[in-house]
Description:
By secondary structure, the protein is mainly α. The protein has one domain (3-230). It is built from 13 helices and no strands. It has helices at residues 3-26, 28-31, 34-40, 45-61, 66-77, 79-104, 106-113, 115-124, 128-137, 143-152, 157-180, 186-211, 219-224. It is globular, with a radius of gyration of 18 Å. The two termini are 35 Å apart. The model has no long low-confidence stretch (mean pLDDT 75).
Amino acid sequence: MPLRAVIKGLGLILSLALVGYLFDSSDLGNAVNEAWVDAHIRGHGLEGTLLFLAMGALFTAVGLPRQIIAFLAGYAFGLAPGTLLGTLAALLGCLITFIYARSFGRSLLRERLGKRAARFDQFIFEHPFFMTLLIRLLPVGSNLLTNLAAGISSVRMAPFLAASFVGFLPQTLVFVLVGSGITVAPTLRIGMATVLFLLSGMLGAYLYHRHRHGLGIDDKVDAALGEAEQS
């Protein structure tokens, strides 16, 4: 194996181990909550907004739930700004993981992801924007694995990121709505969020069923959508 590939592989492994250690030792995942928003984001203007985006990007880049960031975006910024900033934070996290996989882990991750990476490549090859959008609308699957698979695939970055941004919007809106505390009854607010979540999930599942052309992105996704028998 070429020395360059070995160095890249070692760099990928060590850096992932370091990120995991920092999150475990600092309890950072649990520390990002409403109290953190009150202390560091609200009332801190542009500095607070940039800090939120940076933390949200890091949070989602390592595979922690982007829905939590969306909820906190609603809590910190309200409905419309929160939806935009929550989506942008998730997109930045997606970009970090994508570039990371493409720069350091292509050979190593191809072996690790194997069939999953090949199926992803086949699935989005002809229509990268539409197929990526379809994946993002699904209520199942792993955001982190999707970003890693995209990074080591042949998909172009621009349509992948553009479709991811659009596809992130519905679920982000759902959790921003819950976290925003807009002046409607809590039951109504949660009810609206539930309906939006179900509609976006049903749309994603319907499109996946219509347009996957016998290809699946993941066995677990197919099984969750009742299509395993068609793979």
